[in-house]
Amino acid sequence: MTDKVRLAPVGLGRWARVLARGAQRGDTVELYSCFSRDAAKREAFQREFGIERGAATYEELLADPMIEGVIITTPNDTHKDVIIQALEAGKAVYTDKPIAHTLEDANRIAAAVRDTGAVFAVGHSSRRLSGHREMKRWITDGRLGEVSLAEANFSNERGLELTPQTWRYYADKSPGGAFIQLGVHHADTLQYLLGPVKSVTAHARKLYTKSEVPDAIMAILEFESGALGYIGTGWASPGVYRMNLLGTKANLMYDLDFTHWDESHLADDWSTLESQYYGESERQSVDLPRTDMFREQLEEFGLAARGQATVEVGADEAVRALAVVRAAIESSKRNGEAVPLQEVIDNAQVSPAVS
Amino acid sequence: MTDKVRLAPVGLGRWARVLARGAQRGDTVELYSCFSRDAAKREAFQREFGIERGAATYEELLADPMIEGVIITTPNDTHKDVIIQALEAGKAVYTDKPIAHTLEDANRIAAAVRDTGAVFAVGHSSRRLSGHREMKRWITDGRLGEVSLAEANFSNERGLELTPQTWRYYADKSPGGAFIQLGVHHADTLQYLLGPVKSVTAHARKLYTKSEVPDAIMAILEFESGALGYIGTGWASPGVYRMNLLGTKANLMYDLDFTHWDESHLADDWSTLESQYYGESERQSVDLPRTDMFREQLEEFGLAARGQATVEVGADEAVRALAVVRAAIESSKRNGEAVPLQEVIDNAQVSPAVS
Predict the structure, then answer these.
(1) Staple A324 to which of A187, A278, A320, B138, CB 3.0 to 4.6 Å?
(2) Do the Cβ atoms of B236 and A148 come within 8 Å?
(3) How many CA atoms lie within 13 A of B125 on its CB side?
(4) pLDDT value at position B352?
(5) What is the pLDDT of residue A101?
(6) Dihedral of CA A131/A133/A138/A139: which sign?
(7) What is the pLDDT of residue A2?
(8) Which residues of A touch B230 (CB under 8 A)?
(9) What integer pLDDT is reported at residue B350 of this predicted model?
């Protein structure tokens, strides 16, 4: 037996494989067991990743005292039940983003994390991309000056290809469309960089998709700091992943081809970060140290399960990211009137008596 | 005497010289006379541009039957009186943008244009840049598909450098700050590309400037077509001039160094337009035919004065561009609630009895 942290993937679809590859690029965590309700899928996953054991039921997995944490990538609308069951079984829990689709579920999960005192991490990984880490350094050390405008876009063609066979097609399965799938990444990263959002103004449209969900959303974020942020997110165009920060001393412009980011140890190769200084038009390329977001977040999670690290994105951060999406959808219904983040979070609180 | 159209600049500051150079790059118009209340400035202008005559008063200029049109670049808050006086004297009138600072003034000017039947042009020239002309072609011929998201930014450091000695410092002289000075360009160009804006949602902030005007504004434009547009405009960062169109068949991304656009026959050299097709990540550079926006708009104006051309940007277009700015400022006061363009235009109508 190694001394690696013993984790178990739960839900063994495409994303579980992406994360498993990330975990196995390092030496810190071990995929000790796994579970899927589909036994054939589980056996195939065990073979692919050399996992010695698998559980026949979720209860069996959670009862195994050797398992220190679970990596949950089940469908978003199952997150609450799957997560809370694991928390109550005493496991550390990592879940893919978003924490849940509704703030009610998110708040219930956050309450369960507080009640159990468990280690809990949410896979808002894009903030770990080298370009965003570099942006944070420029903010912290003052090279950027004060940011007034932060603009971000994350879009792709998905909405033009959705069919009724996909859960993303349906409003009850994927409320918020492009925003809950794509824009939510920027909702976390912008708050990582610029602090908490105070309120959100947005317009959401269903323009070209045959599905039930919005494929074009624009949101303006008002930060507690006074800065303004913009998130554009759509499902009706070729892919875009961009973020620009406009500061009193410099601008930084980040551009990423996200189609390669599954291999997160190579993702930075498909990105550029450019700087432009006050009084100048020319731009310089900024060197980006290599990162590996999926590996790093799982190793951090594993070490946190042993009390040796702190989770960077926990329930609070994940609730705030989801709340930006929910506030945007609400604002769009109110003709763009700004919706305070705390209002949507508080309106979705459940009473303590409902446990 | 040549057969060139005989025009006269009124107001002979920096911008008059930029336009004069544009006019003199061609053979269509002639700077026949000129006027400034500062006689020394007028004499220097005449010497610089080889203009044979100058008027001692504005009335003298407008009474000269040989002058076919005037090119007005006086301060924005003088536009209404200077323009209407010229219209009533039977001259064709070109004015630099914006048409005026207030919609009340703009509507009065538009009414005078209708009443006199005069030729009237407003210098919203950025739509004539080669990148934007190319964007229009891609929209018209279908290569872009249907645009869902259109994002634009025009920002520079000006707000960090304003002093009380500059008229742009003052809220009564330059209401709307960065938006009336910079963002208004995109307000015209986006409507040129995508049709009329129906309503505007915005937040305006005064963050880092010592002046009285907003230095950070974000606006979401709802188009009659259903598409969404974003204009970010600030005065607290290094310069940016960008526009991205996200379409169902392709994206187009335009990036311009505007610090060179005074020499508008060279402006395109300082720009890039890139395309990205559906299903692809790679971008290709799009060739841009050479344009000369200042020369072209003045030649168009001169020929229109003779009934040989149609003005592309007249009172209606200019009122709509200004109205986007005014609606944005109004929306910001209403906490982001969308303000219909027609509402701000109609609320600023003056009764016909006030002539």
Answers:
(1) A187
(2) yes
(3) 27
(4) 61
(5) 87
(6) positive
(7) 65
(8) 151, 218, 230, 232
(9) 72
Residues of A in contact with B244 (CB under 8 A): 153, 240
- Residue linked to tokens 């610090």: B259
CA distance B184 to B126: 10
Is pLDDT at A1 greater than 70 in this prediction?
no
What stretch(es) of chain B map to CATH 3.30.360.10? 128-291
Mean local confidence (pLDDT), A223-227: 97
CATH 1.10.760.10 assigned to domain A128-291? The reply is no
Is B202's CB within 8 Å of A220's CB?
yes
Show residues of chain A in contact with B236, CB under 8 Å: 146, 148, 246, 248
- Spell out where A64-189 has E strands: 69-72, 92-96, 120-123, 147-155
Q: What is the pLDDT of residue B355?
A: 46
Contacts of B257 in chain A (CB under 8 A): 281
Q: E strands along chain B, which residues?
A: 5-10, 29-31, 69-72, 92-96, 120-123, 147-155, 197-205, 216-223, 228-234, 240-247, 250-256, 271-277, 284-285, 339-340
Q: Which of A232, A276, A337 sits opposite B337 (nearest CB)?
A: A337
In B, which residues are within 8 Å of A246 by CB distance?
A: 153, 155, 232, 234, 236-238, 240
State whether B203 and A220 contact (CB < 8 Å).
yes
| Residue A200: count of CB within 10 angstroms of its CB | 28
pLDDT, mean of residues A176-197 = 96
Residues of chain B with CATH 3.40.50.720: 5-125+296-310
Q: What is the pLDDT of residue A167?
A: 83
- How far is residue A98's CA from residue A76's CA, in Å, rounded to a whole number? 7
* Average pLDDT rounded to a whole number, residues A272-300: 97
Partner-chain contact A203 B230, CB within 8 Å: no
Name the CA dihedral angle for B56, B57, B59, B61, rounded to a multiple of 10 degrees.
50
Report how far residue A49's alpha carbon sits from residue A29's, in angstroms, rounded to the nearest whole number.
13
B interface mutation test: which of A144, A148, A220 has the most B CBs within 10 A?
A: A148
Question: What pLDDT digit, counting tens, does each position of B176-205 carry?
Answer: 899 999 999 999 999 999 999 999 999 999
| Contact check, Cβ <8 Å, A153/B155 | no
pLDDT tens per residue across span B9-37:
999 999 999 999 999 999 999 999 999 99
What is the count of residue pairs from A and B with beta carbons less than 8 Å apart? 170
Query: Which of A1-15, A182-196, B291-305 has the least mean pLDDT?
Result: A1-15
Contact call for B238 and A216, based on CB within 8 A = no
Classify domain A5-125+296-310 at the CATH class level: alpha beta
Which residues on chain A are in Cβ contact (under 8 Å) with B240? 244, 246, 251
pTM of the model: 0.96
In this complex, which of A146, A234, A277 lies closest to B148 when CB atoms are compared? A234
- Whether the pLDDT of residue A355 is over 50: the answer is no
